Amino acid sequence: MALITRRHFLQGAGTCILATAGVGTYSTVVEAGLRLDITQYGLTLPHWPSDLTLRAAILSDIHACEPWMSPARVRLIAEATNALAPDIIFILGDFNGGNHVASLPVWPEQWAEALSILHAPLGTYAVLGNHDLLHGPLPSMRGDKGESIRRALVHTPIKLLENESLRLEKDNQAFWIAGLGDQTGYFDDHHRWKRGPEDLPGTLAQIHDEAPVLLLAHEPHIFARIINPRAQLSGHRIALTLAGHTHGGQINLPGIAAHSKLNLPPEMMYGHVVRDGHHMIVSGGLGTSFVPVRFNRPPEIVEVTIGDGAMPKSRILASRTSFDPSHPKGTFGL
Questions:
Q1: What are the residue boundaries of the structural domains of the chain, listed by start?
Q2: pLDDT at 170
Q3: pTM, whole model, 2 decimals?
Q4: Fold observed for domain 36-327
């Protein structure tokens, strides 16, 4: 066997260091900070009217903070969302920064102003996430149980839903959107842990007809209760659950099991989930938590088209493209 010389050893070590630095630069600067993908799903759902086609754009886990998710980047995301021309827009919580190495906060008034340009004929609706209740604009800042976020959203076209259901219509067909309070919880003023305000039975109790329901939740953990036949939650009316929180794993490397930390089975971490005829889509989100790194899960806007008109019956489509803000029509290219 040939001996490894000191020179060859140093060359090999240098290559490893450069490769590691390259991956770190890509995952921090490029994937987490510059990429923006559009992930599209086309669904034919049970209990959904055959002549109702609905296009929804979904944002999740913005985690606004400097320099990783600045107001300018939030505005770019809003512009990309508008360019999709959706019928309705959903924001699935975690507006506050979750990054422990962020340099400066982005205040609610700043990201709210950036998001205020969002426009869809049926409106824009949001729920809160665990970071919105647990702390302030950064993890190191004291929280106010989401009050500053609620105040900021009042001055935008975005309607916040906290355990609230609304009946909407498109093409003379009715459907409901049900927005849950956060499931995780927060520390009160006496440093005692308080359960999150989520009230699934109370939210569903507001639904007074058989029109299908789109359920908005920050954490996908709620899906276990929806598919549980013993829960008696009238789950058959929930056509689709939309969730975020997981960041799709955020850092997807072999041997790193992000799902175990979140107490979720791996198949519920990301994408389209089907269990016993119930459907859920888990967004990979836009920002980052703990560290400003994404790997193999770029920031994404999710576009969901529901209805028989979306594609051939029973076929489910998932595709990904990248938004190109320089295109004259704001469209996106492969």
A1: 36-327
A2: 96
A3: 0.84
A4: Purple Acid Phosphatase; chain A, domain 2 (3.60.21)
